[in-house]
Amino acid sequence: MKNRSKHYLIPAVIVLSLVVYAGAISAKSEKVSNQQTAQRYDSFRPGAIWNDTNGKVINAHGGGIIYYKGVYYWFGEHKITGPIGNTAQVGVHCYASKDLYNWKDEGIALHVSDDPHSDITKGCILERPKVIYNKKTRKFVMWFHLELKGEGYSAARAGVAISDRPAGPYTFLRSLRPNAGIWPLNFKKSWETSTLQPDSLKGWTPAWMKAVEEGLFVRRDFKTGQMFRDMTAFVDTDGKAYLIYSSEENLTLQIAQLNDDYTGFSGKYVRVFPGGHNEGPAIFKDRGKYYMVTSGCTGWAPNAARSGVASSIFGPWKALGNPCVGQDSALTFHGQSTYILPVEGKKNAFIFMADRWNPQNPIDGRYIWLPIEIKEDRLVIKWLDNWSLNVFH
Ligand code: DGJ
Q: Where is the signal peptide (predicted)?
């Protein structure tokens, strides 16, 4: 017995020393890689790993950005490892930057709740958060797409939270379906009284498509409020704010004006591209015109982007086609639109922001930022491996 234990002792010592040595090596390489990853950036590298100023991968998916007093604030979904990461386990993450390349972690701006009765209880689905600033109330207002825990994507609600500071913390106010009991501004009188019901028609037939265009789902949801899924927020030059969201079973976009304090709806809203099946709306204004980029509806999988232009935010909107050009343009370079960012201090300078989703491991979703060119009659987005703000004049 004694001899045998000696036999085991020698290999055990060797193994232990190897483990200690390997540990030392890996600690050393981690340190080295930390030094490498906490580098300063001076360009955008679409689709590449993008670290914050601590050298940690930026975690702000489906995001949007506001500019306030010399600083950009990027808000997005904090994702975690594995498919569970598609549900909200943490909340909305915020980063701050002065140059758009280097982002400092500002922490979680809105936390999911530990209260199982809260609409934003941990495990709900909280997507595409966008923050706008209300100059009159001096409050930062965050809107997002909310799905109640355990209900899949059926709740289709809008969530709203406010804060006195851009980076938060934000206090959740409520969730709701927009504009209950109110017809859209561009809705025909005869459509209000139609008796057609969604289950009396076979889906995707010409008759069903016509009924969708004529407000089949607006009518169905009239009393409870309109469905609210992929969304963005926009403050116009006159201070009026709007939410643009996929509604009516994702078949039609709606643009709804917010009330004066931006925490509720004013009751004015329109339908855009009825039956057009758009998601991922992103919007900007340039030289008096409103431009929109959206995706089609294929879940997490990429598809071709679409674009549109209007002289008034409430339309009519004219379709402009796929703004992406070149290789992989039919798949939006494997991304999906989330926001369009006006670059401060530059004219006609806008950045198209998209997510390259990774539903099996959402934390490893990547960001695609590309410049948008505004041509006479269309928008153009080209792939660039590496670019800087110098592309704007
Ligand atoms: C596509 C949407 O754009 C995402 O935000 C998310 O809701 C996925 N669908 C879910 O499949």
A: none
Percentage with pLDDT > 90 across the chain? 88
Read off the pLDDT of residues 169-225 as tens digits, 9 standing for 90 and up.
999 999 999 999 999 999 999 999 999 989 889 999 999 999 999 999 999 999 999
Number of CB atoms found within 10 A of residue 45's CB: 17
Q: Is the CB of 230 under 6 A from ligand 1?
A: yes
Determine phi and psi for 213, rounding to 5 degrees: -60, -30
Testing ligand 1's pocket by substitution, the residue of 87, 125, 130, 230 carrying the most ligand atoms inside 8 A of its CB is 230
Q: Which class would CATH give 6-391?
A: mainly beta
User: Does the CB atom of residue 147 touch ligand 1 within 6 A?
Assistant: no
The contacts of residue 252 (CB under 8 Å, 6+ apart) are 212, 217, 218, 246, 271, 272, 273, 274, 275, 276, 278
The H or E element that residue 69 is part of is none
Best residue for ligand 1 mutational test, from 77, 144, 229 (most atoms within 8 Å of Cβ): 229
Name the pairing type of β-strands 104-111 and 125-134: unpaired
Neighbours of 90 (CB within 10 A): 17
**Ligand 1 neighbourhood includes 303 CB (under 6 angstroms):** no
Q: Regarding beta strands 379-382 and 366-374, do their DSSP bridges make them parallel or antiparallel, or are they unpaired?
A: antiparallel
Average pLDDT, the chain: 92
DSSP-derived letter for residue 39 is P
Answer yes or no: is pLDDT of 14 > 70: no
Query: Quick one: pLDDT at residue 155?
Result: 98
Decide: 124 and 87 in contact? Cβ < 8 Å. yes
For the Cβ of 279 lying below 6 angstroms from any atom of ligand 1, the answer is yes
Check if 83 has its Cβ closer than 6 Å to any atom of ligand 1: no
Closest CA to ligand 1's atom 1:
299
How far apart CA 95 and CA 109 sit, in angstroms, is: 9
Q: Could you state, in order of their start, the residue ranges of all structural domains in the chain? A: 6-391
> Whose C-alpha lies nearest to ligand 1, atom 10?
299
